[in-house]
Amino acid sequence: MGRIVFLACLFFAVPCWGQTTWDVFAVGENITNIECSASTDFIGNANIQATNAAATEDRIYLILYSSSCISGCVAGNTVNGFLRHALTDTDNAKILIYADDGDSVPDAGDALISATLLTSGGQTEWTSVAIVDAVSCSGQYWLGFVTDASGWNYVYDNTASTMYYLTIPGSYTSPPNDLSGSWASTTRTISNYITVGP
User: Fold this and answer.
1) Among 10, 30, 61, 67, whose Cα sits 20 to 30 Å from the Cα of 75?
2) Rounded distance between C-alpha atoms, residue 145 and residue 60, angstroms
3) What angle is formed at CA 193 by the lines to CA 188 and CA 197, rounded to 5 degrees?
4) Pseudo-torsion of CA 72, 157, 142, 91, nearest 10°?
């Protein structure tokens, strides 16, 4: 009788073990390929900084960021761009995204991904605009903005990040295709981010 029970257990245990192995594999695949969530995943700084200043016309302001990818996704699309506006005037800006070439300095190897226009609503607020571009959660991106003669009033702190800036005539109308040039830098964090979703 003991042999029959042993053989029965052996017979039924093998398929069960095989199924369990398949289930673990399937769950692992789902975790690896989970979609990004625009409520948690972003590129940039979503905090509201304390100081405000008017940006200079045709001066590009950029900070290097990695995607947050808190949800565990590996790639997605940008969903909305946000740039904090101060004061009550109406200003224009373009949110800029460049892909870093891996050396973490702005140069000719950093290609423009998008330049998207947004206009403030004449108040202190997060101004947003829809942006749809493919991004990788393992990559690094230069995120920033450029303004026209209206002089976008942005908010910042002189902490944490290295902000690069360069005035290029005509860059608001036609942002450059790469980041060639002699960039100056300062320690500054700007309230500017882009959500990443499916």
Assistant:
1) 61
2) 6
3) 155
4) 110
Query: 53: how many CB neighbours lie within 10 A of its CB?
Result: 14
Neighbouring residues of 10: CB distance < 8 A, sequence distance ≥ 6: none
Task: Please state, as a whole number, how many other Cβ atoms lie within 10 Å of the Cβ of residue 147.
Answer: 24
pTM of the model: 0.79
The 3 state secondary structure assigned to the chain is: CHHHHHHHHHHHHHHHHHHHHHHHHHHHHHHHCCCCCCCCCEEEECCCCCEEEECCECEEEEEEEECCCCCCCCEEEEEEEEEEECCCCCCEEEEEEEECCCCCCCCCCCEEEEEEEEECCCCCEEEEEECCCEEECCCEEEEEEEECCCCCEEEEEEEEEEEEEEECCCCCCCCCCECCCCCEEEEEEECEEEEEEC
Rounded to 5 degrees, what angle do the CA atoms 42, 43, 47 make? Answer: 80
